[in-house]
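Encode chain A's predicted structure.
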Amino acid sequence: MEKKQSLKAEAEPCCHQMDEEQLTAIDLFCGAGGLSQGLHDAGFEILWGIDHEEQTKPTYEANHGCEMTVGDIRETEPPDIGVEEGELDLVAGGPPCPTFSLVGRSKINSLDGRENTEDERHLLYEEFLRFVDHYQPKAFVMENVEGMLSADNDDGEPVVDVIKEQMREIGYSVRVQLLDAANFGVPQHRNRLFFIGNRLGVNNPDMDEWQSHHKPRNEEEKQIKFKRDPADLAGEDQSTLGGFVDDREQEQFPVFRKNRKNKRPWNTVADAILDLPPVSPKGETPPTKAEEYEIGPVSEYQYWARDVPDDREWEDMHLTNHECRGHNMRDLTLYKLLGEGVSYIIGDIPEEHQPYRSDIFPDKLKKQNPKEPATTIVAHLYKDGHMFIHPREARSITVREAARLQSFRDTFEFPVARTHAFKQVGNAVPPLLGQALGTAIRTEVLDMPIVEPQKAD
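Encoded structure for chain A:
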């Protein structure tokens, strides 16, 4: 598979020749680049990224046309990214969740020159705001955990209100929303909090108006959603198509449009991964590692995830990161015991067979349900996969399957050890959710047209 080319100058921002519809962004706390990928797909050129984890650099640079800096953002001055002050369109990022009780009303301009050890309240979200204050972008989007929404600081003030006030102090109006990635086509329930701000005096988008998917209304909508060629629909009686008669619904997935009339049912685990070849801990059939597809894609999501260029066939595509981890016989037997296609938790297993004490480690063993979006993919996957057992095979999911459930396409490679890859997938913002956010900001805040879906080069 051809990889996207990356620049070679160490820690230098990317400065490309951009067309008039290309917007600019930087990604702070970028990790493997899930948010970067989503913003790219929404039509943003990522000029620079930074993350403290060294192992994210090979992944980021293998998939993005831009180098990134590995370092402590608290010790990093905003670099020259090739645009004038105030001309950057977007600062994006997901600072690690703070110790909420320590969030205070410190002034952003008081952070400059302060020693890191001087004040333990020097929280990383403040570094995000320091970069916003420096570049004065037209807009920003900051991601954090759901728990921030209900947290108070030591003074009893709601943490979200304190942070919003700091954002206003540097000139930005702000909207805060809790979003479930499943409502934006990601085959996974993942609730995350997003701060969207701008300094242009316009309303920030209400992301509820940009949802593309909905909770299934019946059992039929939980079934795998087979892809249909729009040409096949042309001669059909539109009244028989279950309400999906809007021309926009026949466009290539994904489609993010405001107030979309005909949303689709959530994408499920089956939609996402059941076309991938079987693998096993040991053995020749199935193999431990699969590097080729055995069948073509079936669901709409699988077609999108394969990302096959128009001039190639799926049989010619190389499959990466699809390798089964080792499992002992006890775990494999427990996985098999949990049944096919049904989610169970550890409490359903007789006490003498439980691998963990249920009073200390609840919900520690779970088989994913193929008829539902996956449970939240977490970085803990690098330690074990007990919470992410394959719905049809007696094993935990692979990196590629986890990536599919996070909405990384198969052309997005993780050229690092499996433990690091699982961490990077689990810590990422789902690219599809990033694309939805980027599209909403692009159109409502920056007044630019929607970018049509693109296939791999």
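The mean pLDDT is 85.
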